[in-house]
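Quick sanity check, GAP family protein:
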Amino acid sequence: MEAFGILLPLGVGVAFSSVPIMAVLVILLSERGRTSGLAYLIGYAIGLAGVTVAFTAGIRAIPERVDVPQPATGIAEIVLGVGCMVFAIWSFVIARRRGPEAEPRMPAWLRRLGTLGPIPAFGVGVILNLRPKALVLLAAAALAINSGAVTPVTWTIETAVFLALGISTIAVPVILVRRDGPRARAALERARDWIERNSYIVSSVVVVMVGVVLVGSGLSGL
């Protein structure tokens, strides 16, 4: 269970990724938001689980007879951690260059998500787990899950906790809409507007935090 010290911040990093959250808000605010939003959530959960399990299985599949240096996992964590921090700083600098007076602009492809039916929304949910940032976080999670002694029970618990945390920020608005219906619209619109203006700050802080945790874990394993 020692992997939780790394998995929890990684799960927070996945959960507070602004693109999947903005996508679910746009979909939920559309005419078919109830059905398309649920389909998006299911697709996102399946995609997140599929990529995480694929990375984990790939690492486990490395033959034991292969002579892997002892600090290899630590080096991989350091590389991923530095990559996270560089990406976060680069994203923050690009966003700040627009200036505080710049009006937030939602990408055209995100706006088009409001026209999707359930099946395309499901596909978008799956595909968003293939973004470079998502792949880095999920690869790091797979390394953490495979660190130390791994049994079927610990693997299941660690993976389930990571996935539950990762989809939490997508599941909550979907559940809210299905419970409250049109009454949830005002809250969703406020959340969408706030994320449009501040997503780069939240994402940068979270990803830097994840990077620091990974670098620290990697250094301790050298």
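Posting the structure with no commentary besides this: The mean pLDDT is 86.
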